[in-house]
TrEMBL record:
Domain ABC3 transporter permease C-terminal: 276-392, 658-766
Provenance organism: Parapedobacter luteus
Intracellular or extracellular location(s): Cell membrane
Molecular functions (GO terms): transmembrane transporter activity
Domain (MacB-like periplasmic core): residue spans on this chain: 20-229, 463-622
GO cellular component, one term: plasma membrane
Main location as per UniProt: membrane
InterPro entries: ABC3_permease_C, MacB_PCD, Macrolide_Exporter_MacB
Transmembrane helix keyword on record: yes
Protein name from the UniProt record: Duplicated orphan permease
PANTHER family reported for this sequence: ABC-TYPE MACROLIDE FAMILY EXPORT SYSTEM PERMEASE COMPONENT 2 (PTHR30572:SF18), MEMBRANE COMPONENT OF TRANSPORTER-RELATED (PTHR30572)
């Protein structure tokens, strides 16, 4: 019986192969698009699953969601809080120069406590975890780093020169972590030496390191958090510290906090959004099948009636039509697999991942089978019940079935298709506008034509010579030093000043900078002065921004006033106008600059107006090679680093745009098929109207009218949905664009034009047909 079903199904599909091809292709595109999105979602949801017992791994956070804490916190937690199995401090991932012989390459890694390896259950392929970080100059590297440095020979026991200064011995090689891991590194070195050389790490008020924790399985997180807050309050005197342990399970998808410390959705909102888009695309493809199946129902009415007359039950007919639908979905599924393999490379480039499709993997295989079955059943359930309900007596007498209800449903499904497509188009445009709106924001500093060069080796010692040579090129306007990028200022602390409310806790961010930094960044002084050249007499001076100044003095005039940091007095030399850092969507937050006295950081180079940028970069490279031999030249552009901030929003925009176009294409395929069936069903009517004198234009308008009305209704619904969705999305940003009516209008006009072009091809064909052919038998 199944063989009979299969044979007849294929015969029916071949008989209407043109429309079946439309269905198969539309469904295949829908399945392929949804499958790619679900691959991306699976990768996002699978982050950190490779870590053993990841539900017991945490990072300490503050009320504002910051990861930075004092270097004293970790040891104090281990000593004072029961239920903690391992604690490890680590600095933010840094890039160090590793040299083996003449081979020098930059590698990213952490300075971390040995228990870092226990917390993250690192798997050693060379050496032993028990002894890998016993000595100050021990070095643990990843497999890929070992291959880059030593090739295929064992790395254990080999010597590596780090940053051209000290020799470290490879004490262990660990297996590379998967790409969907929030923890990524090429190397680890002991925290002990770093702590001894930097006394500021051992200050409770300096938030400078991350603290990772692995709890005992029996530990109660609520009790641990309570004891953590008590500990920090005792040590810092801050009763409103708001510290807590944040679980690894939420690092990837929820690691976002508002100003009050409330957790936001983070990347999870993107996962939900694209889950919705995937299902929308699938449903649009399934709607095509339902519409085309019910539209051609009159062609199969006599077949259904004859089967009923010879004894076929309603259940068997439903099974037959569902079988046809599933066979069609299976064919579409096979085509979709081909489309997935063809497009996975482009999709990976778009989302910047390394997703793979492995049909030998049960989860991938079962997923595709489930999608095919779901599409087959979803697409075929209504047509199956509709076709099986035909009255054989009415049909065999030559009378037509009542298509009022199915026509209404068919039109409703077209409206649903176009509503989804138009909504996606509007959302894509609004997302683009929001990104451009923020990119155009006045940040309070100049980001164009600024080249950033990491300070390596002898660059700080030879800074005066480097500066003189750079200025001599004629292509450099100014130069300034800073401890890091002006876009990301991560070090936090607290201060006191005369008249400060003892209950007021002001979180301050700070950065080291020299006298050239403020003019190079194009910042403006609102009060006071800049640092003096060479920092003469300025070792105890700071420059603050207006947001900080208003805490010290209501009128913002804070220059000349004294603030106290750990009891030591600091003179406010100047006040710069507010600038935006860290969060480009938020207002300016309090920040201050200290005089630059570091060996590392950034060299910020402002190129001259009209300078040939590639030529200038080449000149900078030559100067760095002369003054800092042995160090590969690194550089970046501040404006490109600024654009990186919008990576997630750009991903949303690109994906939404791609799938909006796909949904329009799939909808047009269905509309094309429906228009063809409508034109075929009304062939005799067109012939009669033409004989009576109707023009081709009037006939085309007549056939187009129904579809135009459907698209206009879709626009009305889509405008409301898109306005609500985008208003809610923009509500996540303090600095945001407005919703403009013309965006909705353009999307509606565009959808209408596409629909008209799609339908008109069939309408014109029907209007130009010879009426003699259609009326021959009348």
């Amino acid at each position: 019986m199944i063989k009979n079903y299969f044979t007849i199904a294929l015969r029916n599909l071949w008989r209407t192969r043109g429309y079946s091809a439309l269905n198969v292709f539309g469904l295949a595109v829908g399945i392929a698009a949804a499958s790619l999105i679900f691959l991306w979602i699976a990768d996002e949801m699978g982050y950190d699953n490779h870590f053993l017992d990841k539900e017991h791994i945490y990072i300490t956070k503050s009320k504002q969601g910051g990861d930075a804490h004092s270097g004293l916190l970790g040891p104090a937690m281990k000593a004072d809080i029961p239920g903690i199995k391992h604690v490890a401090r680590a600095n933010w991932r840094g890039s160090y120069l590793f040299t083996v012989g003449d081979n020098g390459i930059y590698q990213n890694g952490h300075i971390a406590d040995p228990e870092f390896m226990d917390i993250f259950s690192l798997e050693f392929v060379e050496g032993s975890k028990a002894t890998a970080m016993d000595s100050p100059n021990d070095l643990v590297i990843s497999q890929s780093a070992a291959k880059r440095l030593f090739g295929d020979v064992p790395a254990l026991g080999k010597s590596v020169r780090v940053n051209g200064k000290e020799d470290y011995m490879v004490s262990g090689v660990v297996k590379d972590l998967p790409t969907n891991s929030t923890i990524q590194f090429d190397w680890l070195v002991p925290f002990e030496t770093f702590e001894k050389e930097n006394a500021w790490v051992r200050d409770w008020r300096n938030a400078v390191v991350m603290t990772y924790v692995r709890l005992e399985p029996t530990a109660a997180i609520a009790d641990v958090n309570r004891m953590l807050n008590d500990l920090v309050s005792r040590k810092t005197g801050n009763a409103d510290a708001g510290n807590f342990l944040y679980p690894m399970e939420r690092w990837r998808l929820y690691n976002s906090f508002d100003e009050e410390g409330n957790e936001q959705e983070g990347r999870m909102k993107y996962v939900r959004l694209f889950s919705l888009i995937a299902w929308v695309v699938l449903v649009i493809a399934c709607i095509n099948f339902m519409n085309l199946a019910t539209a051609r129902s009159e062609k199969r009415a006599k077949e259904v009636s004859m089967r009923k007359v010879v004894g076929a039950s309603k259940v068997s007919l439903i099974g037959r039509f569902l079988g046809e639908s599933i066979i069609l979905a299976a064919i579409a599924g096979l085509l979709a697999i081909g489309l997935i393999f063809l497009t996975i490379g482009a999709f990976n480039s778009l989302v910047e991942k390394e997703l793979v499709v492995d049909l030998l993997k049960p989860s991938h295989r079962y997923f595709l089978i489930s999608i095919v079955l779901a599409c087959g059943i979803l697409s075929g359930i209504y047509p199956a019940f509709y076709l099986s309900a035909f009255n054989p007596i009415t049909t065999l007498k030559g009378a037509k079935q009542n298509v009022g209800a199915t026509g209404f449903i068919r039109r409703g499904l077209v409206i649903l298709q176009y509503t989804a497509s138009i909504t996606l188009i509007i959302c894509t445009v609004v997302i683009f506008q929001q990104i451009q709106h923020v990119k155009g924001r006045d940040l309070g500093f100049e980001r164009s034509q600024v080249v950033t060069v990491p300070l390596r080796g002898e660059m700080t010692k030879r800074y005066d010579a480097i500066k003189q040579q750079l200025m001599a090129t004629g292509n450099v306007e100014s130069i300034g030093l800073s401890s890091g990028s002006v876009l990301h200022i991560g070090v936090r602390t607290g201060m006191d000043w005369a008249g400060k409310d003892p209950n007021e806790q002001v979180t301050l961010y700070y950065q080291w900078a020299d006298d050239g930094f403020i003019p190079t960044m194009g910042m403006e002084l609102a009060d006071g002065r800049n640092f003096r050249p060479g920092m003469l007499g300025d070792s105890s001076s700071i420059i603050i921004n207006e947001a900080f100044a208003k805490h010290i003095s209501p009128d913002g005039k804070a220059a000349g006033k004294t603030v106290y940091w750990d009891g030591d007095p600091y003179l406010v030399a100047g006040v710069v106008k507010d600038f935006i850092y860290n969060d480009v969507y938020a207002p300016a937050a309090p920040v201050f600059f200290r005089p630059f006295n570091l060996s590392g950081g950034l060299l910020n180079i402002k190129t001259s107006v009209g300078a040939d940028l590639p030529k200038t970069v080449s000149q900078i490279e030559e100067i760095m090679k002369v003054n800092n031999p042995g160090y590969p030249f690194e550089y970046g552009f501040l404006d490109e680093q600024f654009n990186e901030i919008f990576k997630s929003e750009m991903l949303i925009q690109k994906l939404a745009g791609v799938f909006a176009m796909l949904s329009i294409i799939i909808s047009c395929l269905g509309l094309f098929g429906l228009a063809a069936f409508t034109a075929e069903r009304r062939t005799k009517e067109m012939g009669i109207r033409k004989v009576l004198g109707a023009s081709v234009a009037s006939l085309v308008g007549l056939l187009n009218r129904e579809f135009v009305v459907l698209v206009l209704i879709s626009c009305t619904v889509a405008f409301s949905v898109a306005w609500w969705v985008m208003s809610d999305w923009l509500g996540n940003y303090q600095y945001r664009t407005d919703l403009h009516w013309w965006v909705f209008g353009l999307a509606g006009v565009g959808a209408l034009l596409i629909a008209l072009v799609t339908v008109s091809s069939q309408a014109v064909r029907a209007a130009l047909a010879n009426p003699v052919e259609s009326l021959r038998d009348e």
